[in-house]
Structure formats: structure tokens, C-alpha cells
What we know:
The chain has 278 residues and is mostly beta strands. The protein has helices at 111-116, 232-238; strands spanning 2-6, 12-17, 21-26, 31-37, 64-65, 89-97, 100-108, 121-129, 133-141, 147-149, 151-153, 156-158, 166-168, 174-177, 182-185, 196-200, 207-210, 215-221, 225-230, 250-257, 263-265, 270-277. Strands 5, 11, 12, 14, 15, 16, 19 and 20 form an eight-stranded antiparallel sheet that branches. An eight-stranded antiparallel sheet has the order 6-7-8-9-22-18-17-13, with no helix packed on it. Strands 1-2-3-4 form a four-stranded antiparallel sheet, with no helix packed on it.
Amino acid sequence: MIVHNKLANGFAYIEVNNSSAEAKIALQGAHLFHYKRVGEEPVLWLSEVSDFEADKAIRGGVPVCWPWFGFNEDKTLPQHGFARTALWEFVCGDEVDEKSSSVTIKLTHSDETLKMWPYKFLLELKITISDKLVMELKTTNLDDKSFSITQALHTYFSVSHISDVTIKGLDNKPYLDALTWKKELQKGDITFNQEVDRVYQEVDCEIVLSDKKRVIHVRNENSSSVVVWNPWIEKCGRMSGMKKDAYESMLCIESANAFDDFKVIKPQESHTLMAAIY
């Protein structure tokens, strides 16, 4: 079942239910903010104090960072781009079978986006909900000149406690430490006892998130960069839309095209970033 719903303040979202899983997708930002398999706890972390208001980014779920990841050189422009707070348009919803459903939503250029980023584009996100979550973010260049993008599906995972988490699959991968701006090489599995903000490069393998309560696999296509982030104690207390202890129950593994993994898209050509979670 795929239905259109609204919160009391008029905030619009799409609700999906089938025999395998359930999901909720906000039209603002094409933001998947809930995904839960039948009989299990939610896979995605969502802040208890996040805003669901126009022009405010939701804290948690899967924000869409596009057409740039992080800060723009022009600091007056929004961090992580404009797509995550823009109002997208519902395209279609398909009941593949009783176990699987898909929703496609789109965003295209407008007078407002052209002021921030002077290119014509079509951005489509197809989300397939079953016992596996698949997100396909497709950028099509509708302009008469090439453009470059960085982007991310900024996935927040719910965990039992950050001290119980291990991430496998990134051993011997180079990364940029965004806290020191130094390039490093990962040695062994990733565990957490302090703030972590890293952009891993040359990633061509499955990533495995192990927790006390479950194991989650993440596989990306058309991406060789992955961001791993947990704000830890001090920063969490300063961040909007998060409680002071929120760092204990979440971490981000972001499927990305970031830094050296930027993509140049020629006129009338497309690029699709895919992330599968299972």
C-alpha cells in the first residue's frame, strides 16, 4: 500500500507498507525518514526532536545531499546543497508484488535553483522498499554545458549503543580525516570512542555494520567514496535537532561521490548513485 499523508502542520509525506517492510518519505527533500522491516526495529535513526517544517532539514533518516556535499565555496549557500530542503514532486508508486514497493520522486531546476547553481537538471530518486532498501539517485544534465556534482545519500543508522558498533570492509582504505584535514590509511575495523568524521576513498566493496542487535550490509554502485560520521559528546550537544545523548544511538555511513570522487555530467547524460541496505 502506498498512500499520501500529511502531518498536522501540513508537512506532506508518502507512507509505504507491504508484507516485508514499511517506510515514510517526505516530499520535502525526498527524505526517507523511516524504514523498518516486519518484526524488527527501525533500521534508520531519526531524532526525537527533529523539525518537520518547511525549509528545515530533517535530522536523521536519509538526507539527499546534492549538488554539492559539505560546504560550498560560497558560504552563503546551504550546506550539502539545496535538494534536501526543496519540495520534490511525486512521480509514481508501484506495488511490485506483495513483498516489494517502489516510489519515484523528482526535482528539476527552477528560477530559485538557477540563482544558487546555474544549470538545468532533472534529479530523480527511486526508493524500493522490501526486506532490502534500495535507493537510486539519478542526475540528468538538461543544460547545454557540462556540470560537476558531489553528492551523498547521508544515511543515519540506528544502533543499540555506539560503543558496541564495528564497521568492517574499509581496512587499508585511504581516508581524509575531516577533523584534522589530514590524509590517513585505515588499519583494521572501525570502532568508536571519540568523534569520527572521515571520507573514505577507493571503496569498491561491501560494508558491514555489526551491532549487538543485528548486522547490516551496505553496497554502493557508481560511488568510490563513503563517509563515516558520529559527532560524539561535545559536538552532539551543540547540534540542532539532536538531543545531547543522541550520539550514543546513531552513526552515519554515507554513500557518496565526494572530493576526488566528484562526477562530471555532460549535456543530456546521466549518472546514478545507488545504495542498497540489507
